[in-house]
């Protein structure tokens, strides 16, 4: 676990992310309208919290923690909005995932090292499913900002990106659609 010094006491760097999650989860619960929407976003936020801790400690994003909110969102969209909205959300997810694969391949070509893991790309696809293309692009930008802040604070070039993506996804849920 990575620590930093704050007034002579060691504080885990994941503590600010956990606080941010709790705060933003409360805000999204207040913003959400119907009970199914609150339930769907609650499942998403809970899975994001667990996968962020998993990525931070073991550098692994478990697939079931991506699948569960994806299935929940798919069922929610089918029951409330119909096929057209579901297909648009799936296209947004595919577009964001494709964009991240493209960015990763370009980065690998120029630097010789991969920049995004498979779990990060799947997490951005999940963001596309929940946010759509426009807010999904904002999620990418915000995740990169959170990632730069994290990278600077732990003084390493390689770091788990899942917590930054998760925090950005929850922040972007608060943006008007």
Fold and architecture overview:
This protein has helices at residues 14-31, 35-58, 64-80, 83-111, 118-154, 162-173, and strands at residues 3-6, 9-12. The protein has 177 residues and is mainly alpha-helical. The protein has one domain (15-173). Helix 4 crosses helix 5. Mean pLDDT is 83; it is low at 1-11.
Beta-strand percent range: under 5%
Shape, please?
globular
Number of E-state strands: 2
Rg computed from alpha carbons, rounded to a whole number of angstroms:
16 Å
Q: Outline the biggest β-sheet.
A: 2 strands, antiparallel
How many DSSP helices?
6
Query: What are the segments in which pLDDT stays under 50 over at least 5 consecutive residues?
Result: 1-11
- Helical content stands at over 70%
- Side-by-side strand order of the widest sheet: 1-2
The class by helix and strand makeup works out as mainly alpha
SSE topology string: EEHHHHHH
N- and C-termini, Cα separation = 37 Å
Count of domain modules: 1
Brief descriptors of the model:
disordered N terminus, 77% helix, 6 helices, two-stranded antiparallel ribbon, single chain, mainly alpha, 177 residues
Give the SSE map.
Blueprint: E1 3-6, E2 9-12, H1 14-31, H2 35-58, H3 64-80, H4 83-111, H5 118-154, H6 162-173
Antiparallel strand pairs: 1-2
Helix pairs in contact: 1-2, 1-6, 2-3, 2-6, 3-5, 4-5, 5-6
């Amino acid at each position: 676990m990575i620590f930093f010094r704050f007034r002579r006491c060691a504080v885990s760097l994941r503590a600010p992310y956990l606080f941010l999650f709790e705060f933003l989860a409360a805000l999204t619960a207040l913003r959400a309208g119907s009970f199914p929407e609150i339930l769907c976003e609650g499942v998403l936020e809970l899975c994001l919290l667990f996968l962020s801790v998993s990525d931070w400690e073991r550098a692994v994003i478990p697939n079931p923690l991506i699948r569960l909110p994806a299935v929940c969102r798919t069922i929610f969209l089918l029951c409330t909005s119909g096929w057209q909205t579901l297909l648009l959300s799936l296209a947004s997810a595919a577009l964001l995932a494709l964009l991240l694969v493209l960015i990763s391949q370009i980065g690998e070509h120029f630097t010789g090292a991969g920049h995004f893991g498979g779990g990060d790309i799947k997490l951005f696809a999940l963001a596309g499913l929940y946010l759509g293309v426009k807010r999904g692009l904002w999620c990418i930008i915000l995740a990169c900002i959170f990632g730069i802040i994290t990278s600077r604070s732990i003084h390493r070039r390689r770091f788990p990106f899942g917590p930054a993506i998760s925090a950005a996804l929850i922040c972007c849920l608060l943006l008007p659609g």
